[in-house]
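Before a colleague's protein record goes any further, I have to sign it off. What it holds is a sequence and that sequence's fold in token form. My question to you is simply how this chain folds and whether the tokens agree. Thanks in advance; the entry in question is below:
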Amino acid sequence: MKKSVNIEKIRNTEYLKLALGFTLSTLTTPLLNSVDTAVVGNLSNPVFIGGVTLGGTIFNTIYWLFGFLRVSTSGYSAKAFGENNEKEEITVLIRPILISLILGFLFVIFQKAILWGFIHFFDAGKEITKYIEIYFNILIWGAPFVFLNYTFLGWIMGRKEIKKCLILQLMTNIVNIFLDLYFVEVLRMDVAGVAAATLISQIMTTLLSIFIILRTFSLKKILYNINLKEIFDRSEIKKVGAVNSDLVIRTVCLLIATNLFLEKAAHNGKIILAANSILFQVQYLMSYIFDGFANASSVFSGIAAGEKNFRKLKWVMRKSIQFCIIISIFLSTAFVFGGKKLLLFYTKNAEVINIANQYKIWIIIFPLVVSFGLVIYGNFTGTTETAYIRNSMLQSLVFFLIVYFTVMPVYQNHGLWLSFIVFSLARSLFLMRYVKKFLEKYKLELNVKTSINSGI
């Protein structure tokens, strides 16, 4: 019994260290977006906030749609790491690298058509559109680097290399924040400065990632273990394609909800757009905190599947649920007491702050309803059981659209936020419905170990 308790304690410590490490790592992304918003939000014209937010939404749409490059790579990397199969680790790295390069250059080639489509979708007015175009025309050149960075980060995460993930994210984003402040505050480049700073940091991230990977496997070893037949194996590509298509559908549902939200906000005038943009940045911060724990659950689940250890897989699920409750209560409480100061970080514009305060109740509710949908998601991606995620998101989108088209026209911006909260709650409820089915499936598939050393 003592040995079993020690295993439980060791596993708890390892999970928490991994989760906190990933949280610090992933938080650099929304913090960077927050700095972008805050830097332009403290300039004289609130139009800058709308331009950066809607310009950022274009890239969120593009990059989230292909976020499977990080998520699926992390899952496959964790499995290969759990099997202690170096050749497979290299194979699951090279395959998404090729996909990343193809996708990145396609977006650069078709940049004019992409911008035209989004400009007409948002229809935000000439003043805001001008800044959307400035932001987009600079940042689109970072597409190949962003897709490569997704692949590199996912692969490193799958190997549980927390320090490397943290160093990678912190170094590049500190540079980004410094350049943000320099370009905007010193050189007075406003929106163009924010975009240029982000582009430079994206290129830096790629170079640093390559350096980290080559410290793990030498170039000679990577080239020696590249097997084009295995990389382009039809059965493997079919499996990867199935996982990725599920995640793409999941992301499309998320993007439909997000873009409809911001599109409607853009039509309510620049003050409400600015207020909603700031509140949306706050929910991004909260989401990425959950994402850190989702990443830890993903890695632990992937390794458990690779080790064929059902008890460990079940333990990860239980631990994920516990932290959903703890984190959601903490975040809601923190915003109740610290929300006013957080809003002032983004802008000193009294009119924008006043409007944001009218709708901050929805941000207090947000973590309480979305937590399970964001954290338990990691358990499914880690084992590449993504069909459950796809189904839950499709169901959630239906509920969002019902509220969006019925309640929002009556209650305006409050109705808009209600539709987003309903979508977030549905993500949690529908995904939790599949937990029992997921565990039963793995109980049959995996070789359940009964010895003390393999379980808890």
In short: Residues 2-41 form the longest helix (40 residues). The radius of gyration is 22 Å. The CA atoms of residues 276 and 333 lie 21 Å apart. The chain has one domain: 2-445.
